[in-house]
Amino acid sequence: MSENRPGPPAAEHREPALELLVHGVGGTTPQEMLGDPRTVRVTGDGTAGIHRRTDDADAEGRPQDPEGERPGGPAAGRARPIPEAYCWSNLTSGNSARALWLLLLPFMVANLAHWMRPAAPARHPAQRIYDVLVRLVALSLTVLLTAAACEVALDLVAWQCAASARCTGGKSWLDPIAGGWWSQPGRRLVLAALLPAGLTALLWWLSHRTWSAYESASPPPRPPGPAHPQPGGERPALSLPGFWYGRRLVSRLRAAHTAAGLLTVATALLAAALDHDRRPGGPVPAAWGWAAAAAVTAGWAATVLVVARKGRTESEPDEGIDRLASTVLPGAALGVLVLVAGYAAWPRPGWSSSAQLPGTGAFAWLTLLQGALAAALAVTAYVLHRAAPPGSCAGRCAMGGLGGAAVALLACALGGVLTGGAAQRVADWLDKDGTPGVAGGAIAGPPVLLSWQAAVIPLLLLVVLAFALGAAVHAARERRRLTPGIVDAYEGEPRELASRSRQIARAVAWARLTDAAPALIASVTAATLLLGGGALAGAARTGLPPGPAARTWPGPLPAVADAVQALGSWLMGALVVLLVTVGRRAYRDAAARRTIGILWDVGTFWPRAAHPFAPPCYAERAVPDLTWRMCTWTARTGGRLVISGHSQGSVLAAAAVWQLDPVTRGRVALLTYGSPLERLYGRWFPSCFGPGPLRALSEEVDCWRNLWRLTDPIGGPVLVGGEDGEPEVDRGPLRDPLQYGRTPEHPLPEPVLGHGDYQADPAFDAERAALLDRLAAVRDGAAVPSQGAPAGKPVPAGGPEADGGPHREESGAPAG
């Protein structure tokens, strides 16, 4: 492990020192962060604000209190820093209504794929291809969601159920469209089209509203100054002034996706009307149909062009708006929908609806298109990974740079599950006395492809279960291997029973399972690709659901196929209910929120660069908040500031420091603990947090220390070494628990802290004090103490990690 080597005492300073605390996922209260029940908000609002203890509200204007001096500090008379807490949890979990954002999970996952690109040079030709492919995948998900709404409203309700006396029986809410003027199929479809069109309008409104509420915070002005480039001579992306403000792109994509939703509804109406009018002697002139088809085709071409034409602009805040794309395109799409609706509602004597709505075969073509886009994305990512500068990945990139392609494919699969789940559940609800799509059922049911996709879900879950069992076995073996060496890390303490060593070793072993996430994602992606392709082929070849298609198979296979299809159908429908239930519980129960918080907060950390209907990016509010606070406080007081971030808060802190001007950055120190900067972000987002960007950040920030533990399943070292190869930023692994057995000073067993309570470790206060001393020395021009130097005794059961080196499987006991 490495320790801070104390330098010569800096000259005594009377300017104030501030510690800006940033919490992690799950959130907490200002009272808990500051350790005082009396707090006051000094700036901000109820969504995100900065709080202080009531007694510290005007601390800068008072002389230093001798009682607040740091005991034993290297500079006599230097007081503790003034603590203040930045609370941002309401940006992601302010109320239970935001649980509905979980239904936008496919959009969020697709948006993640944009930021998972390999760390190739920004001007590489494949970069633009990668961006365009991700945006097209995101567009296909909007089409898929709208098509799902059309399947439910237009096909199952207006086309199938409203035409069946058995289905409408007992459903008084269907009486208006089952007879009278609305009984004609075209008019029923136009009335039902209000549901998917309204859903599209709702998504547009939510995207516009959340942008104004969460993402419209402008960055503080900063003078131009030198920046440390990463390998290849480029500035890190997160240091660019426009990274956290991309209004133009979000506005343009919002218009395009809104137009795509409206055009999907128009296409569904047009397909049904054209299918009827192709018969000779129809009452509607053929020119009307051709004109409507031409208008829909032109709308699709314009939408795809707007999506593919231009990406993000990060060199400066992109505050403009493309009025033509943002206003004209959705308006034109709405006009096309009205034109098609008028064409579909035109009187057609003798038109009746039967079987499934014409055009439902588009689900198969859409699935095939999404698979082709994901494959092209994988090829492009491979090219970019090969073009990355040496050392930009250091063997730590998830899935060899193919993480973005895998995540894009999983987003499509998740969208398909939600689509099939909604259609299957609605069909079963409408046909309560029968089975949709089976002889004797009142309606034909959803498209065959959705039934095949339902049948593969149990098989996919078996893959996940097998991986989970393998991980549990591996963790048990790792625990047994680590147990004998645990006690050797605690010298001079009484030895306890072997159960204590097993408890600590178990925490270390389970914490290391986080590093198996790439293997899990790769396994699920491969299984999804194979099973999804099999479902598409089975639906295309047989034209029947899996159960009826297996009637000719020998033995019990037909019964197995029926059971698997039924189970998968139930699971698809249950997933929608589960997402809402889990979301509501997570935002009401702090423990559940912490359980799923890491995945949700990672997903909504990134700006909406691919999908405008994804949940809003909280960092586009939080990062400017922190940057403004650091700039204004240091300029007003001339004091020193240490920004202290835990877990996801460390990512926000690092992103905010990246946005500072050089003068302000010279007065700011960075203290991270339990940080996923390298372990999670560096592996999955190498272009923004890989070895190159993290090295550039350590060169821009004179004072940065990172604390980590072996028992932490989320945090880890940032792996930034000095010229001599020694750890420059990391201090760890810290000892966890702090005491092995019972001692006179600690008569009760100390808990295994894992990811929490880093401030309870004496190393926290020592490193914070050393960072403030280093800031003072840098400002005074004194000899600057080294951030990190090797010290202490190697960890007996795992020496290589004691100096802050990479995670290694042979590493062992947590010691400090």
UniProtKB/TrEMBL annotation:
The keyword Metal-binding does not apply. Residues 782-800 have a biased composition (Low complexity). The chain crosses the membrane at residues 129-149, 189-206, 255-274, 286-308, 328-346, 362-385, 397-423, 455-476, 519-540, 560-583. InterPro entries: AB_hydrolase_fold. Residues 1-20, 25-79, 722-750, 782-816 are annotated as: Disordered. It comes from the Bacteria. Keywords: Membrane, Transmembrane, Transmembrane helix. Residues 52-70, 804-816 have a biased composition (Basic and acidic residues). This is Integral membrane protein. It comes from Streptomyces desertarenae. The lineage of its organism: Bacteria, Bacillati, Actinomycetota, Actinomycetes, Kitasatosporales.
